[in-house]
Specification:
By secondary structure, this protein is mainly alpha-helical. It has a single domain, classed as MetI-like fold, CATH 1.10.3720. The chain is built from 14 helices and 2 strands. Strands 1-2 form a two-stranded antiparallel sheet. Helix 1 crosses helix 13. The protein starts with 8 loop residues before the first strand and ends with a helix.
């Protein structure tokens, strides 16, 4: 048997048979695989550098001490982080933002979960309408929202006393702002289960709608609810435009004002807020429903391999 011209020849068969021709393109396939791995590594390195380098720069800047003329350098110090608790306005801004975040999460869940469950179970044709209304805030700039809502806040401040002028009223706007992101998180969880069947089964066993939602639907979409809550908290802690234009001292507004007087403390607070958001994301990914199953599945695949 003769091989085609240019075809590579492999080793002789163990039984003394004919020469086995090497498959065409085998070496090229290995080279392509190595090139793909290299491209993935480079992309991952660029993305990590884009995300991590600013954090290291913030950490380096916020830990600078007083300039040492002898060594002509900045010694490392944690004075900026210790000084966070010496600014009463900053503490009040942090507390106010956390309270707004809690109210926003509860308001968002109270508005979205029953509405979405009812839409899926009873009026599935309205699903697109609800989705459009929830995604609409993405198309409206924050400055336009402020212009439209400012007269309402002026009336609240004049007629409702301290309650109307409280920064906690920002939760009413923040609930609207978090709707696009929270809707997607909860909707993905509802699509992963047979919501209509679960609701009909609970109703047939005598459960009312509140009990059906709280004890049957909510435990099955707990991962989506946690993700929506984290997104809501992250948005509230980072919101600046509306709070500033309505003259409310939230954490971002105080950081902005503090940056004009002490930029080191301002950067320290910003970094601490980012770390807090990262911790929340880690807790969600670690303790959300399905995390143990994913880990068990990965262990089984490794043992099988």
């Amino acid at each position: 048997m003769t091989a085609s011209p240019g075809a590579g020849l492999g080793a002789v068969a163990p039984g003394g048979g004919a020469l086995v021709a090497r498959p065409k393109g085998a070496g090229q396939g290995r080279r392509t695989s190595r090139n793909q791995k290299l491209v993935r590594f480079v992309v991952l390195l660029v993305v990590l550098g884009y995300l991590i380098l600013p954090l290291f720069s913030m950490l380096e800047f916020s830990t600078r001490g007083d300039f040492d003329k002898a060594t002509k350098s900045f010694p490392r110090s944690l004075q900026s982080y210790q000084a966070i608790f010496t600014y009463p306005n900053l503490i009040d801004g942090i507390v106010a933002s956390l309270q707004i975040a809690v109210l926003t999460v509860f308001g968002m869940l109270l508005l979205l979960v029953p509405t979405m469950v009812w839409t899926v179970v009873r009026v599935p044709r309205m699903r697109r309408v609800i989705e459009f209304l929830c995604l609409l805030p993405l198309a409206i700039p924050a400055i336009v929202i402020v212009v439209g809502i400012a007269p309402i806040y002026r009336w609240m401040g004049q007629n409702l006393g301290a309650a109307g002028g409280s920064p906690l009223t920002l939760a009413l706007i923040d609930i609207i702002l978090v709707l696009p992101y929270s809707y997607r998180a909860i909707d993905s969880s509802l699509r992963s289960i047979d919501t209509a069947t679960l609701a009909d089964a609970a109703r047939s066993l005598g459960a009312g709608w509140p009990r059906t939602i709280l004890q049957v639907i909510v435990p099955n979409i707990r991962g989506g609810i946690l993700s929506a809550s984290v997104l809501a908290v992250a948005l509230v802690l980072g919101e600046f435009t509306i709070s500033s234009l309505l003259s409310f001292n939230t954490v971002q507004v105080v950081i902005f004002l503090l940056g004009k007087r002490d930029p080191f403390v301002s950067v320290a607070v910003s970094l601490a807020a980012l770390v807090f958001a990262f911790i929340l994301l880690f807790v969600i990914s670690r303790f959300a429903p399905g995390a143990d199953r994913r880990g068990q599945r990965a262990t089984e695949e490794d043992s099988a391999a």
